[in-house]
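re: that complex we talked abt at group meeting.

here r the seqs, copy pasted straight from the sheet so there may be weird spacing, ignore it
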Amino acid sequence: MIKIENLTKSYKTPKGRHYVFKDFSIELPSNKSVALIGRNGAGKSTLLRVIGGIDRPDSGRIITDKTISWPVGLSGGFQGSLTGRENVKFVARLFSKQEELREKVAFVEEFAELGKYFDMPIKTYSSGMKSRLGFGLSMAFKFDYYLVDEVTAVGDARFKKKCADLFKSRHEESSFLMVSHSLGSLKEFCDVALFIGRDNKVEFFESIEDAINKYKIDENL
Amino acid sequence: MARSGLEVQKATIKALFLREIKTRFGKFRLGYMWAALEPMAHLLILLAIFGYIMHRTMPDISFPVFLINGIIPFFVFSNITNRSIGAIEANQGLFNYRPVRPIDTIIARAILESVIYGFVYVLLMMIVGLFGEDFKINNILTLVCVWMLLAILSTGIGLIYMVIGKTFPETEKFLPIIIKPLYFISCIMFPLHSVPKEYWPYLLWNPLVHVVELCRNSVFPSYISEGVSLSYLAFCSLLILFIGLALYRTREEAMLTS
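got the structure back, here u go
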């Protein structure tokens, strides 16, 4: 269960405060993956980050007894002058017990298929390599909810398939909170939807189809 | 994932500590040796310059010992506090990982600097000892206490600086400047007893003076350390840590709000 109570979130702009959410409450059902649908700048990613505890609301609370991941595939937390292995170790130290460290590092090393580059500084990586590492790292840990913000499939065809397979197997045990402009992948992975409309009103839909239809009508597609 | 809050914080501080030490020194040949060599080189240069000039002016203590005990504590203090000012921006990427909180970055840094300079301190004292400089560690308990209080004091100021620096970004320009003059009024280049007594009140409010003079007294029994007190230092450090923690607690959420 994730419960959002009286969430208000705004940003300062030169022309006054811009409110993304005002006094917004909702309870997300357990064990359901949620798609966040809306136009650019509607506040999908903001909501995702607030739920994940990465960004803080102006007021209101997020109540949950579930574990929530960092945004899947995130590479902003990497330290460029450290090697892939050292970065993975750092995150593993944060999220797991000492005993599991070796196993987590081994998982990412095997999954990301970086070969020798796993022991090279991240700043020498191509963007594809970086996202492979980021994706592998996210998948190395078990969370009840994974935050997915526009994960574009990475790498060549074979690697894409590998990611998709792992993603699907994770989906059986965990739920996703997903932002994507690929409506297909939302349909594939999510059970319910939150639609964020033009007036920043958030609506809950039991079916993805309905939400997508509403979105299409709203945007005159 | 069922770990207590304290366990998570301990693991986080450890992870940050190891990350920081690797980032700073991992890429060089000799690796961690540089952690010690870098500040040592710095000190040796100062020793060479000032040692020559001031050799005859200090009758009651060997000059290298005098300088080491002044400059190293000051470096610990200024390194911890200066880097705290931009700590939030510098570590922004890390706050994507929920276990990492701003205070952990300050604590990890404080431990790192204290450990590095503690190591350098022991090493340098051994080296000058080998070169025949005369000193005698007569009060190791005071020495250890003073170092711990120095770390606490620096952490407290670090927290205050982090909160102010984040809340009022303009202050980033002049907060480091406040630290600089302390170099000249913290008895690093001169002993307190060389200053006429009527000026002491202008110096003794500064806890760093107490740190420096107490350190010198603990390794050099005949060094006159009149006027300083361990209890004043302890009181000051704990008070500042308390203020730092209180400020941090009220502003933590706001600092993480984008």
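couple things i noticed - DSSP finds eleven helices and no strands in chain B. Chain B touches chain A through 26 residues (CB under 8 Å).
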